[in-house]
Amino acid sequence: MRITHILPIITVMAVCANAANSQVYFTKNGSISFFSKASMEDIKADNNQVISIINIQSGEIRFSVLNNAFHFPKAMMEEHFNSDYIESDKFPTSTFKGNIADINKVDVSKNATYSLVAQGDLSIHGISKPVTTVAMFTVNDGQIEGTAVFKILLKDYDIKIPSLVINNIAEKIEITVRCIYGKK
Amino acid sequence: MNIKLKKWITACISIGIIAFVSGYFVWNKPHADIKDAESIAITAVDLYKNFKSDPAKADALLLNKIVVVAGNISSVSINQNNQKVIFLKTSTEGAFVNCTMEEHINNFKTGDDISLKGKCSGYISGDADMGLPGDVFLIRCYLAKSDHKQ
User: Fold this and answer.
1) Which residues contact A62 (CB under 8 A, 6 or more apart)?
2) Measured distance CA(A61)–CA(A157) in Å, rounded
3) pLDDT digits (tens, 9 = 90+) for B9-53
4) CA–CA distance, B54 with B57 (Å, rounded to integer)
5) Nearest-neighbour CA in chain A from B101: distance (Å)
6) Are A64 and B124 in contact (CB under 8 A)?
7) pLDDT tens column, B96-117
8) Is A92 on the interface with B (CB under 8 A)?
9) Coil, strand or helix: which one is A99?
10) Predicted ipTM?
11) Of the candidates B77, B80, B122, which has its C-beta nearest A92's C-beta?
12) Could you tell me which chain A residue has the CA closest to the CA of B25?
């Protein structure tokens, strides 16, 4: 095959690769927080070091977060969370890998808000479970802000709470996700 | 009441108070000090290389340790907690040492050299499928003392 034949193919491939890239939005300082109402003291923690990536053509969405970077108001809670509950030495990251239905409704050229359904696998503490939630996406001057709030059960992820403190930790935890994505 | 019993009750109450007070202080103890803690000095380029080439070894050496990282600023942004995030360049394009500041600092911009002291929380590998390199993360960062601008 002569070079004149190959050149158009290379050009098409390069254009395609570029088009695929331009559909990818990401953040490296997204936010995930969790909250649990408990008898003695509410438990809450936040993490602002979330890596998330979203392909606005295919709808693929991913999140990764380091468990040991969750910040609690109390140092003691943080220590217990890392050593006894999430076991961050053994399971350093939590991830979500999924898809957003009807992502093609999102028009990044216009400021607007969309309510879409995200579905995928949430992996925490070495256990992966399917999760479905409604997520809000707001396009704002070329950036996309994604937010979602959903609940998980600790026992689904084999997170054991000693019976001594069982009354102080709700078995249902509310997770709030907020990421502001920029174009890759 | 006999004296022996009185002594017993006083002792029990004292122990109870001591246990309660010490429990209260342990439960409410402050977060570990980072500003004045012992630290490991490393460059941003080396820190990233360590995690990328041998994650297990990097974990043993650097994970959850207090480090002073010297590097060049690629960009500065603000997270949703209103903290500054400073991205230090590494030898891989698009991969950074991602530093969340605990203290508010000004006067630093893209291209400046800086040394930051913080806790190394580890490495997230990014996403190879979608072409996003990962970062090494530093949390609760302060300006390392020698770098304070006048």
Assistant:
1) A52, A53, A54, A95, A96, A97, A98, B127, B130
2) 21
3) 999 999 999 998 988 888 888 888 899 999 999 999 999 999 999
4) 5
5) 11
6) yes
7) 999 999 998 888 999 999 999 9
8) yes
9) strand
10) 0.86
11) B122
12) A76
